[in-house]
Amino acid sequence: MSFISYLINGISLGSIYAIIALGYTMVYGIAKMLNFAHGDVIMVGAYVVFTTVSTLGLPPALGIVLATVACTLLGITIERVAYKPLRNAVSPLAVLITAIGVSYFLQNVALLVFGAGTKSFTSVVPLEALELAGGELVISGVTIVTIITGIIIMVCLTLFVNKSKAGQAMLAVSEDKGAAQLMGINVNGTIALTFAIGSALAAVAGLLLCSAYPSLTPYTGAMPGIKAFVAAVFGGIGSIPGAMIGGILLGIIEILGKAYISSQMADAIVFAVLIVVLLVKPTGILGKNIQEKV
Amino acid sequence: MSLLEVNNLTISFGGLRAVDGFQLQIKKGQLYGLIGPNGAGKTTVFNLLTGVYKPNEGIVKLDGQDITGLRTIEINKAGIARTFQNIRLFKELTVLDNVKVGLHNHYHYNTIEGILRLPRYHRVEREMNERAMELLKVFGLDNEADFLASNLPYGKQRKLEIARALATNPKLLLLDEPAAGMNPNETGELMDMIRFVRDEFQMTVLLIEHDMKLVSGICEELTVLNFGRVLTQGETATVLNDPQVITAYLGED
Amino acid sequence: MKNLKLNKIRNHDFITYLMVLIAFLIAGILSVTGQMSSLMEGLLVPLCIYVMLAISLNLTVGILGELSLGHAGFMCVGAFSGAFFSKCLDGAIPDGLRFFIALLIGAAVAGMFGILIGIPVLRLKGDYLAIVTLAFGEIIKNLVNVLYIGRDEDGFHFSMKDSISLNLKPEGEVIINGAQGITGTPNDSSFLIGAILIFISLIIILNLIHSRDGRAIMSIRDNRIAAESVGINITKYKLMAFSISAAIAGVAGVLYAHNLSTLTASPKNFGYNMSIMILVFVVLGGIGNIRGSIIAAVILTLLPELLRGLSDYRMLIYAVVLIAMMLFNWSPGAIEWKERMKEQYFSKFPFRKDDKNMKKEVK
Questions:
Q1: Structure ipTM
Q2: Which of B211, B96, B104, B215 is nearest to B163 (CA)?
Q3: Quick check: B106 and B169 in contact, CB under 8 A?
Q4: pLDDT of residue C331
Q5: Contact at 8 Å (CB) between A243 and A24?
Q6: Which chains neighbour B (Cβ–Cβ under 8 Å, 3 or more pairs)?
Q7: Which range has the worst mean pLDDT, B169-173, C126-130, C236-240?
Q8: Which one of A170, A254, B118, B128 has the lowest number of neighbouring Cβ atoms within 10 Å?
Q9: Do residue B165 and residue B180 come from a single domain?
């Protein structure tokens, strides 16, 4: 029974990673950049929910909406101010460092506004825990909501990218910016839209993460951000189904590793699995293998 | 005996036979042309000869030595050097250093001697500089030795690539469209230069080229490739007047 | 012509050495005459450490052209192996000799890790390589945190669980105590030694760049396929650059360990955040520009301290300055604007004709 319970917790944590990883992978696919600040957008989203619900005492639903709107606007602003000017820079590292700067910036703004102390986050999930098998298997409400939200987001996003006009435009821009422009696609708009969606997802991930692990600090987003980045690479960066698979596998490996091997070494196990996967398949599980033409 | 002997060379990419049963004999000191319409598999042949791709079938012998399926660097050490259709220079290195990288395997001192600048470092570096400058002079690049390779005009970049390939002291030089992007004047110079290289270094040259003036001007023998197969082989004048060849080109264009 | 070029390289490197020497002398005089605040004095050794980390990472990122996000891992390996050695032989051999050997051990162990990690990692490309180096760095940090080594009359005892399972005799001593790390490492580091180590690292890196091996490494960076086609052994030279870079980071680690009485591996000192900070030095100073790395490391280390008066705002300002500098230095728009300004205001001065052809890779 405990194994099933671990597995479910793993899928739940993995769903959060997957939602964050989707943001990473979409941005990577379209802007070819590692958005290191993505994890910190999660943190901002969580603080917005915290302020609305715990400090101001407003209903959680409003908090969720506000957080999503705030993160979306934040994502678009970051892209416009910090990343867009560097889109055609000589070195791809330039925008990576700027993203690190944005990450520091967000963390330190949060530090100034909310202080370094840990805020205890009240779960925004009203669902009761589910007891199965005569009380032997308890699944918390947050876990259920997380998994369901994860599934809904993945289905919607897949439909959006494959069926909608804007989604097709994203695919086109990620394939070839120049050609997409010539076909009359608004490249700048499409990139901004990608950042907006990614950041909105980060807001959702933030409140799910903090509902499950209710301690909030300015650095809350950093490690999940890195893990999600690992998940995205694991699944094949740039690939949307890859991010989902990578995220969920990573969550399962982390929880099972913590439970059965060593809680202190859970992170090492996650990273070791990533290394093994990349050595066997150098572009991740679903990544495309591009060979350089001679 | 021929310097290069290729038999039944074949490679498929996902069911498509890009090169199929290719065969070729080049005698030492020959200027040999490989021509054919776009997409015929000429560059693929070069990639097979230099170990970028491993052939599915066939044998490649250089100077009697079987080099089939060896790695690129082993093939270079065995004596084949090449240039690339889309120029591949070491852009952030100087013109001189580009050639010195080509000399790499012929001049030795170890890492410690290099870091501590022991006498052998100074001596060998001086020898390398002299040798590299000699090569650059042949191609009229000696005045640009200090320039970054990326700052050279296009025609000179092509020449530098040949100089770098020659620096590895090959037996066989493969040139992939050396005249591409050159004006008629530069092409003329290039033809003289290729002849000069052959005579001066006793080099054997196999080249891919679309410029028929260059091909008919310097190549002694030709192989025509079409759809991955050898269409015809023989002396330049005979091949170029072959109706099959004319159809292959006109049909394609 | 060629002599001219050799002179140019020598001048270029000479300026770098001179700059470090002058900076060392100024800081040394200020420190000796008591003109320097104790805060600044405490920063002198860390400055040396950051400079060494920055120039060594530049060897991987700028000269070899591979993005590594695990540099702090090599520093960690060096720090722990060096401190372990010093702890074991404390009092047994003269202090100076012991520290010297500790530095060599740190270099050797980190260099070895560089080779071990480099063999699988360097087959990957670009962002994949970056994430795997990050993963290795995190694994190293994580493993060090669960490593227990003790010593008693029977010899050394190892454990990955806790200090009790070392089964030490009562008089035995725990040397590496898991997350508590190593305590009581002799305080051997000094600004002078740090400066000497910077000089040695500079000589190694700059001379390597201008040697046969350095050219091979840079040729791989510029065009791997062409490098292979002229017979350059890609794996050998990638590993060479990567392990030399790791070894210098290891030495920086030893310096770090002997500057503190307690050495622990935390996300702050050996985590990916540190690797990223070093990368920031490298990119801001100019990729492949060794002198730039030194300047960037010094400025960015001092900046938060100089802003200390602004207390809470200092890291925020640091972040803003970082973003602004990146945008100003790298965005095509800003570069164009700078060119225009230069033309408008400085066009009267005749620039050297070969200015735009100046060597870029040796600054």
A1: 0.92
A2: B96
A3: yes
A4: 85
A5: yes
A6: A, C
A7: C126-130
A8: B118
A9: no
Give the rounded distance of the alpha carbon of A266 from its chain centre.
20
- pLDDT beyond 80 at C357: no
For an interface test with B, the pick among C201, C224, C229, C237 (most B C-beta atoms closer than 10 Å) comes out as C229
Query: With an 8 Å Cβ cutoff, are B145 and C229 in contact?
Result: no
Q: Tell whether B195 and B249 lie within a shared domain.
A: yes
Radius of gyration of chain C (CA): 22
Of C316, C333, C334, the CB nearest to A112: C316
The minimum CA-CA distance between A114 and chain C, rounded to whole Å, is 12
CB atoms within 10 A of CB B126: 12
- Average pLDDT value for residue range A87-93: 81
Same domain, B163 and B174: no
- Residues from chain A contacting residue C225 (CB–CB below 8 Å): 292, 294
Q: Which domain holds residue B194?
A: 1-79+170-253
Q: Under DSSP, is residue C4 helix (H, G, I), strand (E, B) or coil?
A: helix
B17 lies in the same domain as B137: no
Task: Tell me the pLDDT tens digit for each residue of B110-160.
Answer: 999 999 999 999 999 999 999 999 999 999 999 999 999 999 998 899 999
Dig out the tokens for C73 from the structure: 């891992």
Mean pLDDT of chain C, nearest integer: 87
Does residue A248 form part of some domain? no
Please report residues of C whose CB lies closer than 8 A to that of B121: 211
* pLDDT-derived band at A188, boundaries 50, 70, 90: very high
Is the CB of residue C11 less than 8 Å away from at least one CB of chain B? no
- Among B169, B196, B213, residue at a domain's last position: B169
Number of domains in chain A: 1
pLDDT value for B87: 93
Which residue on chain B is closest to C357 by alpha carbon?
B147
Tokens in use for B187? Answer: 């092409």
Residue B49's nearest CA partner among B64, B59, B40, B39 is B59
> Could you count the other beta carbons within 10 Å of the beta carbon of residue B229?
15
Neighbours of A116 (CB within 10 A): 10
Q: Does residue B86 sit within a domain?
A: no
Relative to beta strand B172-176, strand B204-208 is: parallel
Contact state of B145 with C214 under an 8 Å Cβ cutoff: no
Within-domain flag for B85: no
CB contact under 8 A, A111 and C312: yes
**Number of domains comprising chain B:** 2
Say how far apart CA B33 and CA B9 lie, in whole Å.
Answer: 17
Question: Domain of A130?
Answer: 12-221
Report the helix count and the strand count for chain C, using DSSP H and E.
14, 5
Q: Which of B134, B169, B204 is the last residue of a domain?
A: B169
Rounded CA separation B89/B95 (Å):
9
> Do β-strands C262-263 and C182-183 pair in parallel, antiparallel, or remain unpaired?
antiparallel
Q: Which amino acid is at C156?
A: F
A111 and chain C: CB distance < 8 Å anywhere?
yes
Looking up tokens 């090492």 gives A268
Gap between the Cα atoms of C216 and C234, Å rounded = 8
CATH number, domain of B224, equals 3.40.50.300
Quote the strand ranges of B78-194, DSSP E: 80-82, 172-176
For chain A, the three-class secondary structure string (H helix, E strand, C coil) is CHHHHHHHHHHHHHHHHHHHHHHHHHHHHHHCCCCCCHHHHHHHHHHHHHHHHHHCCCCHHHHHHHHHHHHHHHHHHHHHHHHHHHCCCCCCHHHHHHHHHHHHHHHHHHHHHHCCCCEECCCCCCCCCEEEHHHCEEECHHHHHHHHHHHHHHHHHHHHHHHCHHHHHHHHHHHCHHHHHHCCCCHHHHHHHHHHHHHHHHHHHHHHHHHHCCEECCCCCHHHHHHHHHHHHHHCCCCHHHHHHHHHHHHHHHHHHHHHCCCCCHHHHHHHHHHHHHHHCCCCCCCCCCCCCC
* All structural domains of chain C with their residue ranges: 1-33, 46-281
